[in-house]
Amino acid sequence: MAQEKGRERRVRLPAAAGLLASVFVDALGSGLYMSVSVVFFTRYLRLGVGEVGVGLSVAGGLSFLSLVPIGVLADRVGPRRMLIGAHLTRALLLACYPFVTRFAVFLLVIASLGVADRAASPLVQGLFGAAVGKERRVRAMGRARALQNLGLALGGLAAGAVLFADSGPVYVGVVYADALSFVIAAVLVARLRAPAPHAPSGGRPLPLRRRLSVFRDRRFALLTGLNSVASLHVTVLTAGVPLWVLAHDRMPRAVIAWTLVLNTVIVVLFQVRVTRGIEDAADGGRALRRGGVLLAAGCCALAVTGSLPAAAAVALVLGAVAFQAFAEMYQQAGAWAISYDLAPEDRRQVYLAFFSLGNAARNTYGPLVVTFLVVRRGAAGWLSLGLLVLAAGLWAARSGRSAVASVPSSSPVPAVSIVQGDKRGHHS
């Protein structure tokens, strides 16, 4: 009896709290690493810029192709085990980086790391979906995103000192620090109360054909694509605005850094508030519409900055980025609501993985679209981009509303927790 009580005292963190802590630790290490990774590759590993570019492209392609297979596996063995495995894989691969001496080995490491990195996001979302009730899961993801932005920002600030030192051993230390952050994140996930996976009827494994039914779900595929277009706010911030500032000598280059800081502060402060009242696919569609309106307004503001005096142009760029930040928050909340609400309980992870394909695709086509419109078309390009995201938002609102109307009402599945000693099997 005493032994059983001792085991209960070692019971883990509540699921939501443990996940939030793991997300923050992950982001802290990632923010530190991302800011110095390219310098580490070129200065310490002595790789050429072209080789680094090829490695990043291969990693992006493989991570895109692996998302759905990983989702299928996560539905079978459980997202918690998969997330622990993804974190430990990331740590191991990062620890290998300082010993890379050939491009082929670098390609293998960076591609494998890209697969594990991309897999983590839908796995975290799946765990939040099972750990909290339906009415709180979007809000929980809002908290996670706010903490993620805070962690990335703090890690990025710490990286400034590293870049100032410009020392090989310091860069290696950053790589190992990021690896350690993934080990800590894995431990936090391992110690939390794991949500019990939903078992299919009869407890038998679902046939592969049924697991892959997401590819025949036209409405879900449509909303995945529309959300991908609505999420172009990411590329606007990271590529569109910097290119626009660089193309206009009147604006100081420091504006680029100010826009990133402003976006981070707004998301940290308001992401949770924005999620209020956004629960099902209809709410999610309306959130995407609101995000489209806000981003379109920001694009219109950017379109006129090219003809304004420097001070007015800078003020309007910062105002446009504020609109972009709120568009980002509504789009994220809408995406969580849609993907949660329309994913069947017994195939949640593969549906979430499929939905993540839209973000992976955006990272490929987004820079091309935004660069072509901003660099080649100028003000007209900004207006065209605004119309594009506005149309996607309006269409998403209509599709989300019809998706909810076509699904028969059913009683919600309660969130259940298990502790380490629980012998119930994982969903298979």
Which keywords apply here?
disordered C terminus, 16 helices, two-stranded antiparallel ribbon, disordered N terminus, 428 residues, mainly alpha
How is the main sheet built?
2 strands, antiparallel
The side-by-side strand order for the widest beta sheet comes to: 1-2
- Which sequence of SSEs, written as H and E, runs from N to C? HHHHHHHHEHHHHHHHHE
If you average the pLDDT, what whole number results? 86
Number of helices: 16
Tell me the structural class.
mainly alpha
In what range is the share of β-strand residues?
Answer: under 5%
DSSP, total strands: 2
Radius of gyration: 22 Å
Q: How is the quaternary structure best described? A: single chain
Q: List segments where confidence is low: pLDDT < 50 over at least 5 consecutive residues.
A: 1-11, 409-428
Shape: globular
State the end-to-end distance: 32 Å
Fraction of helical residues: over 70%
Describe the structure in your own words.
- The radius of gyration is 22 Å and the shape is globular.
- Helices cover 78% and strands 1% of the residues.
- The protein has helices at residues 2-9, 15-34, 37-44, 49-77, 79-96, 103-131, 137-165, 168-191, 208-211, 218-230, 233-246, 254-274, 281-305, 310-342, 348-377, 379-406; strands at 194-195, 417-418.
- With 428 residues, it is mainly α.
